[in-house]
Design goal:
Chloramphenicol Acetyltransferase; six-stranded mixed β-sheet; Dihydrolipoamide Transferase; 3 domains; 9 helices
Length: 423
């Protein structure tokens, strides 16, 4: 009996997925657990596995096509089995359009590539690789043609690039690095022209959730100016010790994450969620801080779980690992779901102060500005100061003004006396 393969729900906010690339050909035998395609969700590019044994009888959609959750992607069954009934059922009685097995846009020409012997390639010299594998190879400076593929028909997939990254590389003699030529200026658009950019699944979900948050949660904002001089001194000491021990470099963002986590433990009303359907405000027993990371398609918020229990070195290591995986679109649902509070930092861009939109179902989000060199008055004298503005966006349905102010004051106190967050 033919078996439909439907678009699964791969994240809590996913409503549809885009099929990025096929990993199996029509007529190919597959077993339960095999990856037949890669799907772009609103959070990441993920492998699509089959749950049954059989032959891939029909690839129903093409690469780049979007499909809602529960929509038909492919059909499995016995060799030669009729799939028309399944196609008719999912297309409302209409025959599904044929999809070419090999779209012309699937592979990218790589002229001059020295294709390693034993790696299957197309007859026209093109290297077969998934888009995610190409992106990872580019990020790590690996020539895609030098990677041995383990996918169908020698296709290079993500695991092949990861293996190449992990493999030891021969030492290369140091040479003077040439100065790169300036990038060519983009051609001017004709009057009235425009560039059409496809809206990714991530961008669609970001837009929907921000609109829901901004217009359903009554936001109010609280701002404090923090004296960062002692945090700066403490960070220098911590990084000197960490470097001597081969540990990670601690950033100011890591200090803020830790300060927020400690403050959330002291102010549980802020560590809460508005759960309208359940008819409750949910105060969380655990402290899970989401850290906003900018990616090409927008913003994603990987989560530092139990941040209040972790040291600064552990927070620093975990934050960087999650950020790298976020930019590679390699996060799994457990990496970005379940936060109880969020932070967003634009200080590295010189932004001194801003307000952030709450990340539902969190009750609050902290916006972090740049550290500024400013004159301050101490003991009646004007002296140099190092200040940073932090702004707390609060959902007034959950957090009242006094509650938010007390929480923000605790974060300020911890950053001004950082030894307090280490006790």
């Amino acid at each position: 009996m033919a078996i439909p393969v439907e678009m699964p729900k791969m994240s809590d906010t996913m409503t549809e997925g885009v099929l990025v690339s096929w990993m199996a050909e029509e007529g190919q035998k597959v077993t339960a657990g095999d990856v037949i395609a890669q799907v772009e969700t609103d959070k990441a590019t993920m492998d699509l596995e089959v749950y049954d044994d059989g032959v891939l009888l029909k690839r129903v959609i093409g690469e780049g096509d979007s499909v809602p959750i529960g929509g038909l992607i492919a059909v499995l069954g016995r060799q030669g089995e009729d799939v028309s009934a399944i196609l008719a059922r999912y297309s409302g009685g209409r025959a599904a359009p044929a999809v070419p097995a090999e779209p012309e846009t699937e592979a990218v020409d790589e002229p001059g590539a020295d294709v390693k012997a034993g790696i299957p390639a197309r007859q026209d010299g093109r290297v077969k690789a998934s888009p995610l594998a190409r992106r990872l190879a580019g990020e790590h400076g690996i020539e895609i043609a030098s990677v041995e593929g383990s996918g169908p028909e020698g296709r290079i997939v993500k695991r092949d690039v990861e293996a190449a990254v992990a493999a030891p590389r021969p030492a290369v003699p140091a040479v003077a690095e040439p100065i790169p030529a300036p990038a060519p200026m983009p051609a001017a658009m004709p009057e009235g022209g425009y560039e059409a950019i496809r809206i990714s699944q991530m961008r669609k979900t970001i837009a929907r959730r921000l609109v829901e948050s901004k217009f359903s949660a009554p936001h109010f904002y609280l701002t404090l100016d923090v004296d960062m001089s002692r945090s700066i001194a403490a960070r220098e000491i911590l990084n000197a010790r960490s470097e001597a021990q081969g540990g990670p470099k601690i950033s100011f963002n890591d200090l803020v994450t830790k300060a927020c986590a400690v403050a959330l433990r002291r102010h549980p009303a802020v560590n809460s969620s508005w759960m309208e359907q359940e008819g409750e405000i949910r105060r969380h027993a655990d402290v899970h801080v989401a850290v906003a990371v900018a990616v090409d398609e927008g913003l994603i918020t990987p989560v530092i779980r139990h941040a209040d229990r972790k040291g600064l070195a552990e927070i620093a290591t975990e934050t960087r690992a999650l950020a790298e995986r976020a930019r590679a679109k390699d996060l799994q649902p457990e990496d970005y779901l379940g936060s109880t509070f969020s932070t967003s930092n634009l200080g590295m861009f010189g932004i001194e102060e801003f307000t952030a939109i709450i990340n539902p179902p969190n009750a609050c989000i902290l916006a972090i500005g740049a550290i500024r060199d400013v004159p301050v008055v101490e003991g009646g004298a004007v002296v140099p100061g190092r200040r940073m503005k932090i702004t707390l966006s609060c959902d007034h349905r959950v957090v009242d003004g006094a509650t938010g102010a007390q929480f923000l004051s605790t974060v300020k106190a911890l950053l001004e006396e950082p030894v307090g967050m280490l006790l």
